[in-house]
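ok so dumb question maybe but i'm new to this and my supervisor (M.) told me to 'just get the structure for Nitroreductase family protein' and walked off. so i did the thing. is this what she meant?? sequence i used:
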Amino acid sequence: MFAKETLTYDAIPLPDRADMTDAEMARAAAGFLDRMRKRHSVRDYSDRPVGREVIESCIRTAGTAPSGANHQPWHFAAIADPALKQRIRDEAEEEERRFYAGGAGDEWIKALEPIGTDAHKPHLTIAPWLIVVFAQRWGEFEDGTRYKNYYVPESVGIATGFLLAALHHAGLCALTHTPNPMKFLNAALGRPASEKPTMIIAAGHPAADATIPRVAKIKKPLDRISSFF
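this is what came out, is it supposed to look like this??
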C-alpha cells in the first residue's frame, strides 16, 4: 500500500492481460451473466459446514477491489463461533423489532411486504458463517497519526459486490442484512471507532426447502437500467 515516509509513484508493466478475441469476450460476458442470474438472496440455510479456506478466498477476492487512492478502507470480520453468532442475532433482532414496531415508516414497511421479511432472523445463527463488513472512515500509521480515506462508501460497496460474487462463484448463497443502528457490532467484534459497520452477510448452503420471494426474480430490463450514447 503506502507508508508515511514514501508516497511516490512507481509504474510497472501491466502484469495481467486478457487477450481475447471479440467472440471470446462476448461468450465470457454472456457466461458470467448467466452465472450471476443464478445468484439468489436466501433466508433459509442448511447448517452444513463451509471450510474457512473458502471464506478466506472469497474475502481475498473482495480485497482486490479498486478503492480511493488504493487505501482499501474495509475490514471483513468472519464469524463461525456459535456463541458470537447468537449474540449478533440477539442484538440484531432487538433492533429489527424496533424497526418493525414503528421505527421505519409505513412506506418502507409496505415496500418490504413482497419480500416477506420480519424481525425474526434465524439465518444469523443457522448459516455457518456471518461476514460483517466494516468501512474504515480513517486509517492510522504505526505511530498513531491519522490519515484520511477517500471515497469510502463507494470503495466498500465495490468490495462488497466482489465478495457477493465470489461467494456465489464458490457455490454458496448469501444474504445481506442491515439492522439499524449497527453500532453494537463494533463492541461485539472489537473493531475501532474509525470503522463503521455497513452490513452483515450470512453465507452458506441453502436449506433443502429454501424459498425465495417470487418478486425477487423480477429484474428491470436493460433499457431501464442503462443508456448508450
